[in-house]
Structure formats: C-alpha cells, structure tokens
Amino acid sequence: MERRTAIQILSAFVPSLALPPLTETIFAGVNRAIGDRAEADLADWEQIIRDHEIHEIIADSVTNMGNITADIIEVGRILDRTPSGPSRSAYLRISSQLSLALYDALLGKKDATAAREAIRAARRAADASGDRDLAVYMRAREAMGLYWQGQPAEIVTRVANRAILLAEDRPSAGLAYACKTRTYGLAAQAAKGTADPREARQALNDVFDMFERLPDQVRQEKMTYKGFPESQLRFNEAWVSALIGDTTASYRAADAAIAAFPSQRVYAIANCRSMQALTLVREGHITEGLDHALSTAPGLPVTAARRLITGHILDSLPAQARKLPAAQELRTLTAAA
C-alpha cells in the first residue's frame, strides 16, 4: 500500500507519471511470496540505479519521480528486515543513490524543501553504509545542485569543501565533482569582485591535477555522474573561464567539451553552447550571441543549469540591447521554465 500511495500522491503533480495498478495487483502475491527483491538481486538494483542516472542525464528527471519513489520505499522495506552486515550496507548504498535521484528530480520541480529532505536521507544512508567515497559523492552532488539552483557562492563552496575534507585526498568521482563545484563558487565570487580570479584559476588547475589521479573506470564512464571523463574537465574549464572573463579559453574549452560528450548528453551539450553564446555577447557580438543562445536546444526543456547560464547572458547585455526581440524571447523562454 505504501508504494501505491506514494505513486498516487506523486501523480497528482507529475502529469506524465504512468500508474501500473493492474500489473501491481497481478504480481502482488508473487512478490510477497518471494520477498519482493531478494538479496541475490543486488546487481539488479545497481542496474536500476544506473537507469535512473541515465534518465536524469538524457531526459527530464521529474517524469521519473514516481519510479524513484516506489524504489525508495521498496528498498526501505528490504532494509527493515535486513540485519547488520554486508547486505545491509549494500542496500544502504542503494537507498542513498535512490534518494540522490529523488533530490535531483525535486530540484527540477523547484521544491527546495523536499529536496533538502531527500539529500539529507542520501547523506545519512551513505554515511551509515560505511562507504566513504559514496559519502563524499553525496555531498559533492549536493553542492552541484545548490550551485545550479542559484544558491550563494559562499554556501556552495562551504558544502563542496565538506566533501573535499571528508575525502582526505582519496581520488574519486565525488572528490572530482566537489573540486569542480568549488571552482564554480570561487569563480562566481571573483565575477562579483569579492574574490581574486587567481584563486579560481588555481582551483581549476587543481581539478586538472585531480583528473590525472582518477581511477581509469572513473575517467572512462561518460554517461552518468559516477564518471568524471574529459568532457567534464572541459565543461568545468569552459564555465570557470567564462565567469572570470577569459572568453577565448571558455569558447575553446566548450568546443572541446561538446566534441567529448556522447551525443545523448543533449543537456550538457546545450549548456556548452549556451556558454559560447555568453562569450559571444561579452565580446560584443550581441546579435550573434543571442541567436546562438536561442538555437542551442530548440524544444528541449530548460534546466536549472541552462537557466543560470542564460541569466548571465541577459545580465551581460548592454542596456540598449536588453529590449531587442531576441533578448525578450530568451528572457521569456527561461522565465517560463
């Protein structure tokens, strides 16, 4: 009943959520008899996690909220009957990652209060599992979410620093993303004139050094945030360079990131093209920059990241250019998202 109730509640504010009451009824008895998902199915749960991660990256995570919530409840039931030991730790890791997926989806819904509860659950489950790399990863992803939602740079940097301290310099995807997000915070402060751009450049160099120390499997994973491949490195370089005013380096790095991202990473590629639009505007190519921004991803939902980048584009326009039809269209497009 908990699982069905959760899906029904979510369906009230996620119109595209498909409800499967008939199949649930058909298989309810069988699932009870075998204990839902047996411990031997941990590999299946890992695949489910990966499916959720890929859905978040190539589609709208909000449309997946019902599935994520149902899985969280199911894993919670398994944890209720699983004693301390390796199996419980494994399911705590699964629960942590599912809660993170829900955090991302709730951010997409702009529900900051519920998102805070989700990421708190993700952190606690990761900590309880005893997996330090996962605990670092959760805090890094929290910092990323805060940044793209437009939270103050000081808050973003503080959360990223917690992840960095917890990692104790052990190379991992979580540490890489924490260092990456820290550069965003420093660059944002530099852009406001409250920090030295040299700090952001040094932090950017630190990310390059970190990249060389990452395990091969982390650098080779291109489709989920479990990996930190070259595309992420170049994306980071492009955005930090844009924030501190190095437009040439930013445009070049965005080109490299676009070439390195798999074609399915449509949101990341759109963000890179939006960064290029920002550099064009800042170099005085107003019409070209606005046209570039409007053509980055026609028909693609506007994410928090693209909304933030677009905000920088609009803020960078000269006063007389802000009344241009293209500028007004861009403002309307992102305001409606």
From TrEMBL:
<protein>
    <recommendedName>
        <fullName>XRE family transcriptional regulator</fullName>
    </recommendedName>
</protein>
